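WARN no homologs supplied; continuing
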Amino acid sequence: MSEWTEKDVGTFRARVSDARAFLHIDEKTERLQQLDEACAAAGFWDDAAHAAAVSKEAGAIRYVLADYERACSLLDDAATAFELAGEDPAFAEEAAAALDALEPLLDQLEITSWFTGEFDASDAILSINPGQGGLEAQDWTEMLYKMLTRYAESKGWKVRALDVVPGEGIGLDRASFQVEGHNAFGMLRSEHGVHRLVRISPTDVKARRQTTFASVEVLPVLPDDVEVDLNPNDVRVDVYRSSGPGGQCVNTTDSAVRLTHLPTGIVVTCQNEKSQLQNKESALRVLRAKLYELECQKRADQVDQIRGERMDNSFGSQIRNYVLYPYQMVKDVRSGVETGNVDAVLNGELEEFVIGFHKWRVSQ
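OK structure emitted
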């Protein structure tokens, strides 16, 4: 327990006041009232997609308001306990406990304020693909898949596999999954890019050091009201049998779906849902996100051309190095955050790197 004093209450009071401002608590309270009135209106659930979007927005606002109200409550508890500590020293411990709980809560509220992008609060779609390194890259793809899904689960988010395909003999040929949770896309943007692994190859009989790459793509799950130029006539749909481990019905029905967007050549596959219809719906969701990202990239490229500035993506795309030999270290190229506890990181303890990236991003 930290050694707080009554003077610290003033510092925390200022932070709570700042949180009220940067979280726009008054505006959020008013917006929640509007959403609740909409939910109570007759016929609200007639449009299921719109109702789900409204309910999700209301839930996200309640999440923030509840944390802010808890912060206010902890601050009041600490202030009251310090006042009573003059008569009974035991209250000083209660005050310290309240401030111990308040400090990380305020830190989290400050982090929440960073996610103001259009889709930051959305669910996320992550795709991992092996790069250079052959079988090693497939193994690295599986290691990243486990790392990212464990991190998501540690946050209390729901993870749903969309297309997880075993590699030949080792690892994964590719992996795509959806993460559902508050600010999932905003937080996981930190993982978008190329991840580089350096280690002694477990498949090399001469035990030589090898460098391996795998790319992680992070896209938002787009709301239904976001317009995307997707003509059904431009999409070729192929169905095939699912591969890899599964339940009793695996490989007995053509439930896996491959969508090919003919104008762009974008290919999306999904095979981990229970039915062909579900796989097609999931694949379409991924395809919409990819097309939207492609359009955004085209606009960004046009702006760069107008500005006369073209950045080389080759170095910037390598976002993080994972070194297992001759020493152990994970270092983020962008934020500079590093640790020697490689095992913990690969087991999903990514919070330091995620927060470090966003601190760096905000500072830019």
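Residues 147 and 326 are 22 Å apart (CA to CA).
OK
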